[in-house]
Amino acid sequence: MTTAIYTHADCRRHEMGSWHPESPARLQAIEDQLIASRIDAFLDYRQAPEASIDALARVHTSAAIALVRDNTPQSLQSDGGDHFACDEALHAGYYPIDGDTSLNAWSWRAARRAAGAAVAATDAVIAGELANAFCAVRPPGHHARPSEPMGFCLFNNVAIAARHALEVHGLQRVAIVDFDVHHGNGTEEAFIDEPRVLMVSFFQHPFYPYTGAQSLSRIAPNSVNVPVPAHSGGDVVRKLVLEQWMPALEAHRPEMIFISAGFDAHREDDLGQMGLVEADYAWITRQVMDVADKFSRGRIVSCLEGGYNLSALGRSVVAHVRTLADLG
Fold this sequence. Notes:
two-stranded antiparallel ribbon, 8-stranded parallel beta sheet, alpha/beta, globular
């Protein structure tokens, strides 16, 4: 069996302005580095379908779904629609959700592709067609709350996939591993009272979205979310993985593992202040694979979250995918 890359051109059409760090260039950087590393020939490239409304609704409220669907600007769509509004942002082709997050004419479709990639990868991995999969998609997802988009994220791709594994495939226990520099507040909220789901993460603290630490929010009993100070490097992260993540994962015995793969804890990424390098991402991936091999039949689906220095992002994804594919 092979490792698959799920992606779609629609994920590059979503954009929030030329100034925005969560840009279509991120996916191009990943593609370029996969080709340059010469591992692309060993991967199974698959087109991401659009997630169904039912799949989105397993995590998100109808109001949250409608917010994206009904406010996606129409003026730039290829059908030639001439639906202009008085809002200046809409004239420019964007609908603002918050100060960091907006919609363009492709956002609804791109968000459904991103969630659909995670769902399709889950189906294929559970069916035994693939060893594991990486979803090179955007918009990212782990800040999207059940009730609203936020923080560059529209729908919570990993949460939607995990819920799909539980409710459609009947799995009894899954785990979510999040190594983005920011706390995955939306994911934690989606499963805060769900004992079938264990969430483990580290995140820079204090830092956006200012959640996850004991003093700031209710801590879910089914989470091991570890705040770390700015400038923490690989030694700090490897220690917490071994001492805090691994015992929890072993005790939970997940039947499948989902990864929120953010690469903005890299030392070259200006949106965070941590000090990880490619070797750290490869090491973390191997630890997760060891748990998956022991309890989950090796089943892993990983979804792109953050990572905004394009060179560091591409190199880190190569390290992550090379490890998933056992390519040395």
